[in-house]
Specification:
single chain, alpha/beta, Immunoglobulin-like, TIM Barrel, 24% strand, globular, hydrolase activity, hydrolyzing O-glycosyl compounds, hydrolase, GH39_cat, Glyco_hydro_39, glycosidase
Length: 569
């Protein structure tokens, strides 16, 4: 039966890829231009670098060859520190890397049941971040084997195509002894201070667990809350100025998830603390997850950005309903088009969007709406973690949700490079375009295309990101965009136009043109690395601004993303 299912999936995937390829040729632009007006003199708040957050399941990839290379590139794309979140930092094991698995052996016990702490692998992971100027979102989990109430089976050997629920083994259970757990947390924070210094550790975010409302936590809601109380108390005893948060539930739009999140927030406000007996529990930031839901419709992958945005909005709504907590920073701990990064497209045809420009255009359009949702709810959005990294020593462009394959960057990484070039002060874009954040939240993008922009400025630079997105993974005709940047100083300005599309910033299309080699030569790899970099659409051009306005017109292919920067003396 499993073989039959795989064959059916392969056949469906072939249909999807064939249908997509049939429309991949260059298309003429539509006749009706889209007019986008940017008003530099109309502030729209701070463009918080919520995109500068990344995460992944497999912590041991961190210090492997391609992992270190990608982390360097991620660190370099941002002027601000990039935060990194990884699972399994307290899992028992030998540090072997595998899909949806990782271990550090940080905690074991001797023959007398006494704790043995070993921070060697944890340090190797965090050293890799700190050396690059990155910051850990230090995830406190999962349960060490010696501490689990149900330790066996402990290690899983999941692979794409296996039952996803098979991963929830002994590491997902509560501790036998909450005091021992608290001491482990205390020792980890103290060790971090000794190794990296108090000031550095104060800049981290400590969080408890991952998605405790589903299989990642095999205890009850109350047992998670109890674990949080002991964890938060231990963190604060070791470093009173440390930042601790949770609960990292997934899908606030689901009724059971919302119930879990509210139970947690009720407790931190007014519950009796399990560890101290006092009222409430320390909470410095709030976390939850939000995912989209792609599917295959008539042989075409169809995304569902609305599902992701509704989850985000529900999470914001819940937080905003707590007057004592509304001001706290929110970190969307995983914010992605769907849920399983390691579910490759060869076995999961709905994920056949990840290698190309669908993923990059989705990312541009969705991040812009996260800002809008936060502003509308009046909450403090600090970060939105893209749960995508790399999968070491896997087939080229296999279709994992990752930022690079075998050390070669995918188009989606270039969107983050674009974000990294945008100044910090958001400005207004005309609101009479086809979609605003409410329409995308409620309807996704199923009618006309979403052609829109995000813009910002500082004293000597403006930047405008423009995307051409639709939920259907089809490369229909390009759009003509008439862009007007208003509020510029008169005189000469220098314009750079960066582009992600089928021909630019796209190693995947270059790989396909090579014949999709399973083992590219060294020369081909060099060519692919170059193709994966963010590319200019054309050479930089000087323009003369009169009456404060710069008009620009260009064609933007479906799934294309442009970044136009304008700088002046």
């Amino acid at each position: 039966m499993m073989l039959l299912n795989r064959l059916l999936c392969a056949a469906l995937l072939a249909t999807v890829l064939t249908a997509t390829a049939a429309t991949a040729q260059t298309q003429p632009a539509t006749t009706n231009p889209t007019s986008i007006r940017v008003e530099l003199n109309k502030p729209a708040g701070t463009l918080q670098p919520v995109w500068a957050w990344f995460g992944y399941d497999e912590p041991n990839y961190t210090y492997m060859k391609d992992g270190k290379k990608l982390l360097t590139e991620i660190a370099n794309l941002s002027k601000v520190p990039v935060y990194v979140r990884a699972h399994s930092l307290l899992v028992t094991g030998d540090g072997e890397a595998a899909l949806k698995w990782g271990s550090t052996n940080a905690y074991t016990e001797d023959a007398n049941g006494q704790p043995v702490y070993n921070w060697t692998i944890v340090d190797r992971i965090f050293d890799t971040y700190i050396e690059r100027g990155m910051k850990p979102v230090a995830q406190i989990g999962f349960m060490p084997e010696a501490m689990s109430v149900k330790p066996q089976p402990y290690r899983h050997h999941w692979k794409p195509g296996d039952n996803y629920n098979d991963i929830y083994t002994g590491w997902a259970y509560p501790p036998k002894d909450y005091q021992k757990w608290a001491e482990l947390v205390y020792q980890w924070v103290k060790h971090s201070i000794d190794r990296y210094g108090r000031k550095e550790v104060e800049s981290w975010y400590w969080e408890l667990w991952n998605e405790p409302n589903i299989g990642y936590w095999k205890g009850t809601t109350d047992e998670y809350i109890k674990l949080y109380d002991y964890t938060a108390d231990a963190v604060k005893r070791a470093l009173p100025t440390a930042k601790i948060g949770g609960p990292e539930v997934t899908g606030p739009g689901w009724s059971e998830s919302a119930k879990f999140l509210k139970a947690f927030l009720d407790h931190v406000v007014s519950g009796k603390n399990y560890a101290t007996g006092k009222t409430g529990s320390p909470l410095d930031f709030i976390t939850f997850h939000a995912k989209g839901a792609p599917k295959v419709v008539n042989g075409i992958v169809q995304m569902n950005m609305g599902t992701q945005l509704r989850d985000i909005d529900k999470g914001f709504e819940i937080v905003a309903s707590y007057p004592k907590l509304k001001h706290l920073p929110i970190i969307i701990g995983e914010s992605d088009p769907e849920g399983c990064a390691a579910c490759s497209e060869d076995l999961h045809p709905q994920n056949a969007y990840r290698n190309g420009t669908m993923y990059s255009s989705y990312t541009a359009a969705s991040f812009a709406r996260k800002y809008d949702l936060a502003n509308a709810r009046g909450v403090n959005l600090l970060g939105a973690v893209t749960w995508a990294f790399e999968f070491e020593n896997q087939a080229w462009f296999r279709g994992f949700r990752d930022l690079a394959t075998n050390g070669v960057d995918k188009p989606v990484l270039n969107v983050f490079r674009m974000f990294g070039m945008m100044p910090a002060n958001r400005v207004q874009v005309n609101n009479d375009l086809a979609y605003n954040y409410l329409r995308v939240r409620d309807q996704s993008v199923r009618a006309e295309a979403d052609i829109n922009a995000l813009a910002s400025k500082d004293d000597r630079k403006a930047a405008v990101m423009v995307w051409h997105y639709h939920d259907d993974n089809l490369l229909t005709p390009a759009a003509q965009v008439d862009l007007s940047v208003n509020g510029l100083p008169d005189g000469r300005v220098l314009v750079h136009h960066y582009r992600i599309d089928q021909e630019h910033s796209n190693a995947y299309e270059r790989w396909k043109k090579m014949g999709s080699p399973k083992a590219p030569t060294a020369e081909q790899i060099t060519e692919l690395e170059k193709a994966g970099e963010l590319a200019l659409l054309e050479a930089p051009v000087w323009h003369t601004v009169t009456k404060g306005t710069l008009p620009l017109s260009f064609n933007l292919p479906r799934q294309g993303v442009s970044l136009i920067t304008v700088s002046w003396p």
